[in-house]
Every structure is written in C-alpha cells, then in structure tokens.
Amino acid sequence: MSGDDHTHRPVHGTAAGGAYVALPPTAVDAAPSGPVRLLVAWPGFDPPRTASALAAAMPMTGVPVWRVYLDLPGQASGQASAGLGSGAILETATIEAYCAAVEGAAERLPDALADVRRHLAIPDGPVALAGFSAGGAAALLAAARGAAPVTSLALVAPVVAPARAARAVEKRSGRDRSWTEQAAALADRLDLGTAAAALAGREIATLLIGGAKDRVVPAREITSLRDVLRRHETGPVESATFRMGHALAAEPGTEARPPITEAVRVDGVLTDWFRDRLALPEAGGEARPAEDGHGAWSSTNPADPSTGEVPAVGSDSTAAISGAGHPH
Fold first, then answer.
1. 147-198 residue pLDDT tens
2. Any idea where the domains of the chain sit in the sequence?
3. What are phi and psi of 241, to 5 degrees?
4. Class of domain 11-322 (CATH, top level)
C-alpha cells in the first residue's frame, strides 16, 4: 500500500514485535506542510489500554498524515491491566511492568518505525509523537533519548513521576508501597522532569493535556512539567486542562469503542494542534478541522491578555490552552 493512498480503511499489522493500527491520511481539506508523514501514538495502563482502543478514542482524523498507534510492549491486546490509580501500583510487579513498557516503547521505536514505513511505503523523515498516560511518558522518553527525529510532541495525562503517582495512592489507601530498591530505581529513571533536560535546544513543539479531576496525574504535575520544559528551552510548550479524570475510555479499554465525551474533546484539541504544525491548507481552504466545537483549541482565538490563556472552542469552558509557547 502506498503512503499516499487515501483509503478510508485502517491498517492492522505488527511492528518490532508489537501490534499497531494505522489510520491513513484521509483529511480532504489539507495536505502535509513539511517532511512529517507519520504521527506515532501509544496508549496507557488505564483505558484506552491498547492501540486499537486509542485509535478509536483519538483518531485525529483531520491531521493529513498517517497516524500509527502502537501497543505498549508487554500489554496483551485483549487483556486489561491494573490501572495506575489502583493499589496495584504499590506492588513491585506492577511498577516493574510499567517501567518495562515505557522503556521498551522508547527503545523499540526505531525498529517499529522501520517496519511501519516498509509496510505502508512511507519515506524516511521526522515524526510527530503522542501518547496517553504511560504512553505519554514513552513519547517524551523516546524524544529525549533521540530514538527518532521528532518535530512535535503531544502528551495526554502523561505520568510525570511514577513515584509521586504511587505516593498519592498510598495516601488514599492507607497502604505503603512494597517496591524493591531496584523497582524504585527503575521508577526514578522515568521521572519526566529529569528527562526533559535532554530536550534542551531541540526546538520540539510540545502540547501537554491534563485533567482537573485526574487523581493519577494531578493538573499541577502537568503545569510543573510545562515549566521545566520551558526552563530548558526545549521549544514552544503549551498546556491545556480539561474537567476530566485520568481514563479516556470506559473499562476495560482494550477494544475499539465509540469515544466518550472527554476523548472527543481531547481529540479535537490534538487534531487542531497537530494540524497547525503538520498541515498545509489546500488551495482556497483553511487548515482547520472539518468539525470544530468538541473542545478543540483554535489558534485564531484571541488570548486573554491578563492570563495568556487561549479559550478552547466549544468546550463550555472545560479547557484552555495556557501560554503561547514562550518561556516565562
């Protein structure tokens, strides 16, 4: 199949030993504006937990490049794992599985890209990365470690620090974690605030999305990561907060299902943001989503001069993009 063949059918395959779902570039009102022809995204340990479930929740249909959703290593396609907000994160086996999945996703990205490009006849070039929860951590880690040339990065409720997520569960449950020293060291390696330093000067446009009701990754974690990235001058960094919890799909979150309201809103923001960076409007058209009004951010909206925030379109004030990508 050619990378320019605008079929409406998803492509299912295996790359670097893991399953993927590829959605073709079917946007009719825009074309790619640069060399990026591929956007790669990973799911999380919470719903949506698989590539197919994430593709259904956040298809980003208006983005005129291939969107390829990869399963996290070790996450069986038909098997639900324990959510990070549950007491399971306090067990060594769970945190080791989480660390292995995130590290493995970053390490396997070059091989996965090679397989996907071969299967879909997509030429070499830079990529855009996205991810939800654990997948968001994998996306930032892959960019920080130079697993691929990355131009833009969107992280939805990324697990900024596994140790802090576990600490929150400890407080809610009244239990102490039983991590071994080795497990704790593995978790500390995945603190995204520390990894951010490797992105200094890379000029990677970054969008961070969090939930005001998220108990796994509180909104303050997203704000803190945004500020760290800005201090390191990694490129333009923006953030958005929705009135939502952590999950973006109903349990068990392993199969493709119609998206829930929160996912539709997040998908709108991602679509709009990636289009602004990856899309060139066709003659006589504008590089805007065909459907706007599901919580999508519009860069044409005026910012509030007192806060620097740009309101989300049609979100009933549920989200706002913070900042214009300029370091404070």
1. 999 999 999 999 999 999 999 899 989 999 999 999 999 999 999 999 999 9
2. 11-322
3. -125, 130
4. alpha beta
